[in-house]
Amino acid sequence: MGHDDRAPARGTGGAVGATPIVRFEGTGRAFGAVRALHPSDFAVRPGECVALVGHNGAGKSTLVNLVNAVFPPSEGAVVYDLPPGAAPAGRSFEAGAVRARRAAGVRAVHQELSLAPNLSVLENLRIAQRDLAGRGWRRRASDRMRASLDAVFPGNRIPTRAVVGDLALAERQMVEIAMGFADGMEPARLVILDEPTSSLDASVAAQLVAHVRAFCASGGAAIFISHMMAEVFDIADRIAVMRDGRIVEDRPASAFTQRSLVAAMGHVAPEATAAARAAPSGPDILGADHGLSARAGEIVGLAGLAGHGQAEALSRLYLALSSDWRAAGAPRAAFVAGDRARDGLFPLWSIRRNVSAAGLGRLVRRGLVDRAAEAALARDWKARIGIRTDDLSAPILSLSGGNQQKVLFARALATGAPVVVMDDPMRGVDVGTKAQVYDIIRAEAGAGRTFLWYSTEMDEIRLCDRVFVYRNGRIGAELRGDAITGEAIVASSFEMEAEA
Amino acid sequence: MTALLDRPWIWAWLAAIAAFAATAAIGQSQGIAGLLVAALTFSAFTTLVGLGQMFVITLGPGNIDLSIPATMTLAATLSLKFMGGAGALALPGFALALAIGLGAGLANYALIWLLRIPPIIATLAASFVYQSLAIWSNRGLRIKPPEILSDAMLGRTLGLPNVAYVALLLCGLAWVVLERARFGREVTAIGQNPRAARRVGIPVERVRCATYVLCAALAALAGFLLACFSGGAALNMGQEYLLSSIAVVVIGGSSIGGGRSNVPGVPAGALFLFLVVSMLNSYGLGAGVRLLLTGIIIVGIVALGARPRTAE
Amino acid sequence: MIPRIDIRLLLPVLSLALLLAAVFWLQPRAMSYLGLNLLFNLAVPVALATVAQMIVIMVGDIDLSMGAFVSFVACVTATLVVDTPALGYLALVAAILGYAALGALIQARRLPAIVVTLGMSFAWGGLAVLLLPSPGGSAPGWLRALMTAKPPLVPMAVLASVAIALVTHLVVMRSAFGVLLRGLGGNERSLGKAGWSPVLLRAAAYGLAGIFAVLAGMTLVGLSTAADANIALRYTLLSIAGVILGGGEFTGGRVSPVGAVVGALTLTLAGSFLSFLRLSPDWQIGAQGAILIVVLAARLLFARRRAR
Fold first, then answer.
1. Are residues A319 and A439 in the same domain?
2. B192 to chain A: closest CA residue
3. Where would you tag: which of A355, C146, C176, C178 has the fewest CB atoms within 10 A of its CB?
4. Residue A220 shares a structural domain with residue A327
5. Yes or no, beta carbons of A324 and B203 under 8 Å apart
6. pLDDT band at C4 (very low <50, low <70, confident <90, very high)
7. Which tens digits make up the pLDDT trace of A11-29?
């Protein structure tokens, strides 16, 4: 199978002379009047690990989708390095480019989970790999999946016959990544990883980083998209920076520092340490039976390894504060979703209606919605939180991901609810928006609002007044003020893991 | 003009008008006025049940009330039996019909909620029970409605059938509820994303309950009026409304996937359905061809009128 | 390799066993070759229609034309297949292709399947009336012989049900092709991204459903020896109920072929059970609804118990 006899010829470490696995020749893409990617040149050679950075809407997804042959370019061409004898023939784009992409060994691991939850792990591999058919295909699929899972995530305990829907979110992401690296008829040569670690905890993410580096060292290549700066520098030997649909920088990773990278993306780095804030004192205004509590005006963080019960605790708490049956005049809590599509957006509605959806009760006069008041509310919050749009009656899906997230923040803050529950709300949000939202959160907390904040990012946890570290579904540690450090949180997250 | 053409219901109205013209062109014995009156009368009943079904469908995928025919029959049978043709009992009889609708709606929802059954199955199972109740209470007897009610239903005002005014009034109410009221906003939100709806503080279960009750109450009302109109309740009187209640919602341009509905399309769909059948009738086609063409037309309209849901 | 027994299957099997025990208790004579044959006689077409419905539900749709289509097939079988076999079988093949075309149309234009099949129920009904305006026709000889065959030890109906369950399980749950069809119900987008054509796959699913539905219509004629345009109208609701009783879910491609067949058997048996109870005909249909409710309630309790 091509992989082994191909690798030695390529050399390692981004050999300049090697034929690129994929090459853009003045390739661009427009969606109607919207220019998503200006004609660009871009290439990935065997042995390279390229990080693709840029804030939301910079064109990363468009570039990746072009590499992945999701849609054809509007101009220029995407050229793949095909193994001999694999000249693809096809009338349509789907038949031609998709086949060429596959023959070239280009695989993608998507940001939004793209597994079929009703199928087992090995059956999902069958969908990705066409040669898994005929007698004994289950055995072969299982073997390939097992080998890849164990290679990328040593020590994982995911059975290949488990139904994906029964797996935890992190495990599903692991399966998806392993599928990208799994052996097949066309071996993986270029793996695109789009925010692969967003649901993974630190130790598993480290396993992935190690595997990607090993993969590239043996002649493979990777395109890596991440919003986590440390990870980018850990993994990449080349960094391509995107801004406004252009590749503005494409240089070896060593040519960047964290600060210069953020500057290249078009944003000033947020202050590393937040200005000291007097931690609110006073009685707890809410508490949950498992020990979670919060005071008025406090920012309370829920930390720990992903999948240790933080999200569930938060969800339970919010659901207990609201009702399936009673409509509260003044809601006791508001919710900011991190998984926008699942928990937050009303996809058919305008931006305005999405903003006003929570706490609609205040806008109702005699059973009817006061539309003037609703419009005023949406205008007000568009200005306050900086939602980038000219038209609040435009569909919510016309906004970029970061701006959609701002709408969800505006929705929650506009309710006036004393407690705001945030379920990892910064997933996939760019640095600029993050800094802006942090400021708003601190201002609102200063005005007496309580925030309950589940986050997977250490920077965000450090903004909190008090942090509960979860471990195996329970609170393992409570940290306050200066005691909230990355080391302390990691230590409390892992403590019992080591014993177990 | 383009704004008008963007309305999802405009095609249903155009189709209804075309079907009317095609039927009228044949020149029936009853003439154009007669055709109009017949169309308005019969589509009024379909409109009533269609409005209820529309609210239920708006709740999102899987939400469909299959108990509409049984509820219609049960409400009509029991209330007509109660009145026994006595005009003095007309008002209590009417109240009884609505109460039965209320009860059926609550029972439907109780099954959906308590047993966590998909609404299609819950309403289907419940409809079997309602049907049995109706059979048991009626035993094949056909009790006439009080004269005052049948006169009112058969009567006309300003040349148009009274029942059409009832439908028009309810359409107006439904429009206000769907487009302007909090309840409509909540139903639409649930239809798009029930998890998000719960997380913005909408009392999801209460809204769902109210929607099923509303649908059943409208079905009961339609059954009561239909029985008064046609001179008595029959066990199979609701049968055709199972499919037509769903069809008019979709022909009217509402999304079967929920979350996007419109009221004006419902009466248009109802008129269209009736007029297509009478058109094929007036062209002298047999039952087989008539059914075949009705089916092909419904599929054709849906296929042509569908705007592919864009995911991007 | 022993196929894993889905825990989902336990309840349908349990409710069937319970109902069967109740029937035997009421009517001990049913506990015989002849009795079983009588009890389950009509189960074969119901099971086939349920499997057809299950395949449609599996790809995220629902087929409200199942009853009308099976009736149409029955009319074709009782008329064309008997009179002009070549034309008759051709018509049946065309009907299956028609089903596949519907699937392609639904996918290509992103139509709501509920409405399309609703419309098609009129169309199939119309065709059936055109073919057979009044009840009549006759069953092809070989079909009649097959359906009334008396294999040793196990009655035909039971044997056929087992065969249907086995074949469907192999095609849907075990084969590489079945994975694609289930994937269509589970995550259509990922199939598209992997380069599969959702249009072709949905057409294939509907075509497969059409094959089972055609078999349902044919076996129904084999049993009843005659047909009419309304012969199987209740199959629409029966088949949906059978899928749900068998542990299937409406969304997400989670279905169980064996469960669907068991669900169909349970529904058929429920009918016999009620007649053994000498229930007034007034209440028969209501009791069927009640049985459906009870089984679903049991399923809920069962699921709760497991969740704990």
1. yes
2. A346
3. C146
4. no
5. yes
6. very low
7. 334 445 688 999 999 999 9
| 8 Å CB contact of B128 and C292 | yes
Q: Do A324 and B206 touch (CB under 8 A)?
A: yes
CATH for A462 = 3.40.50.300
Chain C positions touching B66 (Cβ under 8 A) are 237
Q: Residue A342 domain-assigned?
A: yes
pTM of the complete model: 0.79
Task: Report the residue of C107, C124, C237 to disrupt the B interface, i.e. the one with the largest count of B CBs within 10 Å.
Answer: C237
**In order of start, what are the domains of chain C with their CATH numbers?**
7-307 (1.10.3470)
DSSP string over chain B: -HHHHHSTTHHHHHHHHHHHHHHHHH--TTHHHHHHHHHHHHHHHHHHHHHHHHHHHHT-TT---TTHHHHHHHHHHHHHHHHTT-GGGHHHHHHHHHHHHHHHHHHHHHHHHHS---HHHHHHHHHHHHHHHHHHHHTT--PPPPHHHHHHHH-EETTEEHHHHHHHHHHHHHHHHHHTBHHHHHHHHHHH-HHHHHHTT--HHHHHHHHHHHHHHHHHHHHHHHHHHHTS--TTTTTTHHHHHHHHHHHTT--TTSS---STHHHHHHHHHHHHHHHHHHTT--HHHHHHHHHHHHHHHHHHHPPP----
Q: Residue B40: which domain range?
A: 2-305
Write the ipTM: 0.87
The residue range of the domain holding A365 is 284-499
Question: Which residues of chain A make contact with B181, given a CB cutoff of 8 A?
Answer: 367-369
Chains that touch C (3 or more CB pairs under 8 A): A, B
pLDDT in tens, A315-341: 888 888 888 887 766 788 899 988 888
Q: Looking at chain A, which residue has its C-alpha nearest residue C254? A: A118
- Cβ-defined contact of A118 to C196 (cutoff 8 Å): no
Instruction: Looking at the complex, report in whole angstroms how far the Cα of residue B245 sits from the nearest Cα belonging to chain C.
Output: 11
